[in-house]
Design goal:
- About 5% of the residues lie in helices and about 40% in strands.
- The strands form 3 sheets. Strands 1, 2, 3, 4, 5, 6, 7, 8, 11, 14, 15, 17, 18 and 19 form a 14-stranded mixed beta sheet that branches. A 5-stranded antiparallel beta sheet has the order 13-12-21-22-20, with no helix packed on it. Strands 9-10-16 form a 3-stranded antiparallel beta sheet, with no helix packed on it.
- The N terminus is likely disordered.
- A hairpin with a 4-residue loop joins strand 12 and strand 13.
- By secondary structure, the chain is mainly beta.
- The longest helix is centred in the last third of the chain and has 15 residues.
- The radius of gyration is 26 Å and the shape is elongated.
- The protein has 1 helix and 22 strands.
- The protein has a domain of about 180 residues.
Length: about 400
Amino acid sequence: MEYQCSQSVTILNWGIMRLSSLFIFTSLITVSCIEPFMPETTSYDDVLFIEARITDDNRMPPLVKISRTAPIGSDQAAADYPVSGADVYILSSDGSEYPFYESLSGEYLPVDINFSGEAGKSYKLILYHGGNTYESGFEELLSSPPIDSITAAPGTEKRSETGDPVKGLQFYVSTHNDDPPPSYYRWMLDATFKYKVPFIASHIYDGSSPVYFDSRDIINCWKSYDINNIFISGTGGLTENAIVKAPLNFADQYGDELSLRYSLHVKQLRISRQVYEFWSDLDKLTNQTGGLYESQPFRLEGNIRCSSDPLVNVTGIFEVAGVSESRAFFSRPSEFEILTLNCEMVEVGTESMPWSRLSPGDYLFFMEGFPSAYYTSRIECFDCLSRGGTSEKPSFWE
């Protein structure tokens, strides 16, 4: 494809996927676009890493993931060191106990498939493994207020220290809570966009001759993807319990995302201050851009401890959250140019494009005239499915 593509490092999956490959607790940690400097004193602790989440959204089932950290710079990641054989429970403040079973190596789901959190109740994670007990404190599930708005504005983003800024849309979320401040939030995002190919095929090449074919069913497509990054904000220190235009993701001018219509789906998780601080520290750890000596060493602290032996290293987070959600739609922006795939028609049967160069399955467009001729182009210019989308319109689409 001939448009400029930008690559971004995805940090998260549902929560902190592959995070622990970044951990070195006894050394400085830096993230940059240059070859990293590794001090000779760098060491690696074999740390148990626990990720757990429970919400009041029954479409987000409770999940506990247990792994061991990998050294920084290693080709391995946390997902390569799953921890099996743990006994996992969640205890509710009303005395109910919910056991979990190991569905995949290192991943645990509730035995009761209908179990989800309830606002006003508190929950505690208890985990037994290797002769030790790991547990969180009780975390109250607080209802999440509605999202007031999801908006966008033209902006620029610099993708590297030496690169030119790229244009695009910067998205924002606003919310407020009638309760007294403070409130803390994390946002989970996914996006869907509609795009369209420029050419309609009238024929398809079967290896020897053109055969009639109508490609109008594969002109329009939709493509969805998760936006894996850390988006948090809180009202601590503010007089009003409101978040106004907290920045979310940035969609740039290259490719199909903004070419026709774009939809951003936002799930808002209302979290505790301690969980918020964990995500804030994690954001600093993974997204800092300062030099080596601008970074200060620290250990990422979660809300899970080894209660049977305080000397045992463990880190991770038990996130208890109320969830609200909203979806917004955005038309193609007019403030800057959208640079999609460069599509050109080429006449077939010429010296530069003889029939022998075609492959079975190539799309053709027959143009009547004096003389009539067949034209072709790359498959991505005829078939939207070849760009990774689906021709089935999503049920939520407006």
